[in-house]
């Protein structure tokens, strides 16, 4: 069994909190810039009301909140709410990074906690620390989290308990003293981001490892002619192929989401079976991209996972 890689971060002239925040910003910018990324906004594709530039504005705007999170071990809900408010106040494209923020805040908090003690970390150490932080959330975190949905303009699944459509939900949360982690436990079976919280960021970690390995050998398929764009597109397709994107399930249905994942798997089989790289199947990816854009099917949860994966990879020193 191979040893878990340990990554070292060199201390520079700026505090670690600044380094962590810049990694988060760059992760968000790299993800939205990667193309072709089937169904999602990228440097070549916009939606009618949400443009590539809206995502860039959002990524830049949350810097101070990520920096603050990197210096804190509490107030997860308040920090998520702050980041959402910053994101929507700097652009008019609506919900750009809500799911990513939910993942980045605890990961930034965990990174700050670890690096406050030492200069090295492993990915399991980072995700375990983030998971521990989330298990310690309380009712105040849940209330803060619920209150930011209107700001973000997020579409959610209808549920019987603690429904966001019910104006009495916050009162119910207070009465039952439900923590934010407990809310995610309730949502984990129908929301991919909630599932990441409760599973210990397994998909985020897997995505980071894909990116780190791919960038180490400079290609997601082992050939030396790929680049950072191709690595991110490959990671996106890989995560999408293995997971039902619940952003699609919420907007459409589970069958549609599973069909999109199956399509992504079929594209990747071209790489595995014919030993080619992303560039070689780019026309096929572009065809899938056109189809999803025409049908307004966007794998938003997958994009959030990929942002978190890029973030962890950048923390670990991945460069391009």
Describe this protein's structure:
It comes from Methanolobus halotolerans. It holds the Pfam family CitG. This is Fumarate hydratase. GO terms for molecular function: ATP binding; triphosphoribosyl-dephospho-CoA synthase activity. This protein has about 325 residues and is mainly alpha-helical. It has a single domain (about 10-315), classed as Orthogonal Bundle (Triphosphoribosyl-dephospho-CoA protein), CATH 1.10.4200. The chain contains 17 helices and 2 strands. The protein has helices at about 15-35, 50-60, 65-70, 75-90, 100-115, 125-135, 140-145, 150, 170-175, 180-185, 190-200, 200-215, 230-240, 245-250, 255-275, 280-295, 300-315, and strands at about 5-10, 120. It has a two-stranded antiparallel sheet. α1 packs across α17 (about 300-315), α10 (about 180-185) packs across α11 and α12 packs across α17. It is globular. The two termini are about 30 Å apart. Mean pLDDT is about 90; it is low at about 220-225.
Assembly state of the chains shown? single chain
Number of strands: 2
CATH topology term: Triphosphoribosyl-dephospho-CoA protein
Q: Nearest-angstrom radius of gyration?
A: 19 Å
Q: What is the typical, i.e. mean, pLDDT?
A: 91
Strand order of the largest sheet: 1-2
Distance between the termini: 29 Å
Largest sheet: 2 strands, antiparallel
What structural class should be given to the helix and strand makeup?
Answer: mainly alpha
Helix content: 55-70%
Topology:
Elements: E1 7-8, H1 16-33, H2 52-61, H3 63-69, H4 76-89, H5 98-115, E2 120-121, H6 123-135, H7 139-146, H8 149-152, H9 169-176, H10 180-187, H11 192-199, H12 202-216, H13 228-242, H14 246-251, H15 254-274, H16 282-295, H17 300-315
Antiparallel strand pairs: 1-2
InterPro entries: CitG
Protein name: Fumarate hydratase
Pfam families: CitG
């Amino acid at each position: 069994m191979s040893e878990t890689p340990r990554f070292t971060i060199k201390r520079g002239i700026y505090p670690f909190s600044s380094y962590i925040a810049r990694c988060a910003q760059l992760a968000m910018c790299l993800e939205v810039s990667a193309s072709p990324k089937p169904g999602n906004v990228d440097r070549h594709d916009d939606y009618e009301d949400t443009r590539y530039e809206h995502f860039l504005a959002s990524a830049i705007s949350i810097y101070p909140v990520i920096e603050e999170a990197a210096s804190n071990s509490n107030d997860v809900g308040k920090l998520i709410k702050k980041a959402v408010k910053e994101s929507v106040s700097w652009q008019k494209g609506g919900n750009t990074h809500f799911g990513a923020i939910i993942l980045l805040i605890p990961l930034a908090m965990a990174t700050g906690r670890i690096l406050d003690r030492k200069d090295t970390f492993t990915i399991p150490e980072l995700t375990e620390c983030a998971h521990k932080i989330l298990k310690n959330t309380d009712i105040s975190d849940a209330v803060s989290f619920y209150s930011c949905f209107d700001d973000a303009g997020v579409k959610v699944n209808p549920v019987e308990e603690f429904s966001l459509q019910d104006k009495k939900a916050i009162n119910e949360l207070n009465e039952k003293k439900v923590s934010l982690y407990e809310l995610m436990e309730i949502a984990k079976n129908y929301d991919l981001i909630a599932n990441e919280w409760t599973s210990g960021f397994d998909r985020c970690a897997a995505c980071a490892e894909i990116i780190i390995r791919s960038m180490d050998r400079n290609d997601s398929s082992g050939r030396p002619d790929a680049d950072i764009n191709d690595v991110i597109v490959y990671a996106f397709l890989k995560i999408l192929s293995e997971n039902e994107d619940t952003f699609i399930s919420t907007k459409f249905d589970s069958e549609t989401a599973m069909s999109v994942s199956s399509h992504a798997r079929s594209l990747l089989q071209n790489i595995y079976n014919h030993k080619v790289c992303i560039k070689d199947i780019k026309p096929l990816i572009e065809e899938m991209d056109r189809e999803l854009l025409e049908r307004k099917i966007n794998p938003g949860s997958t994009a959030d996972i990929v942002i978190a994966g890029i973030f962890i990879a950048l923390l670990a020193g991945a460069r391009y």
